[in-house]
Design a protein that fits this description.
192 residues; alpha+beta; 29% strand; 2 domains; 4 helices; 4-stranded antiparallel sheet; 26% helix
């Protein structure tokens, strides 16, 4: 992807500075990339899409209490307070590079799982080039409030496995229509 090449170029520039510790270089790369990317993208002969991304999103954003994304329904914690089932819980597994301390010279990669609850759903619009949806979450510690995470398949994915082989085979079905199933609640403020 084109953006990754800019990310790598900036990282190389920052790493070429001598006399800085790796921790300080990583901090500079994180803090300075956005401004550098915008300036560099304006000077390069690149696609309108990449130029639009470098400008950042429109200053007006949309806020939702619910959102359907990749056939999964998400709600904010506030909206879940009015519902029987809860759809505000999220889990994210991330591969991160980290340092044990500021004196550590060798970053290492770790896999971390984060658990949280959605507090806001915000849609950013990059001047009609593309839209991105952000979930603002409160990330909880396991020792504080206890939450139980259930991994689920999306609503239009059905287990149609053959009993003879004992394996699980999934088949895609058509998304359900709320007008044909009266038990589904009417969405208020949700967007597909």
């Amino acid at each position: 992807m084109v953006i990754l090449s800019y990310f790598t170029k900036h990282e190389d520039i920052v790493n070429s500075h001598t006399g800085k510790r790796k921790w300080s270089k990583a901090e500079s790369h994180s803090n300075d990339f956005i401004e550098w990317f915008e300036t560099r993208a304006m000077n390069d002969d690149i696609s309108d899409f990449v130029t639009g991304l470098s400008r950042g999103p429109n200053t007006v954003a949309k806020k939702f209490s619910g959102y359907v994304f990749n056939r999964y329904r998400f709600h904010t914690r506030m909206r879940d307070g009015r519902c029987k089932t809860q759809n505000s819980g999220v889990t994210v597994e991330a591969i991160t590079r980290g340092f044990a301390s500021s004196k550590d010279e060798r970053p290492r990669k770790d896999s971390l799982t984060y658990y949280g609850a959605i507090t806001d759903i915000i849609e950013l619009n990059y001047y009609e080039l593309c839209k991105y949806v952000l979930f603002k979450c409160d990330w909880g510690h396991l020792e504080e409030n206890r939450y139980y995470v259930m991994k689920r398949v999306s609503r239009d994915l059905f287990n149609m496995g053959d009993q003879s082989d004992g394996g699980q085979e999934f088949h895609w079905g058509e998304p359900s229509d709320s007008s044909s199933n009266p038990t589904l609640p009417v969405d208020d403020g949700e967007v597909d």
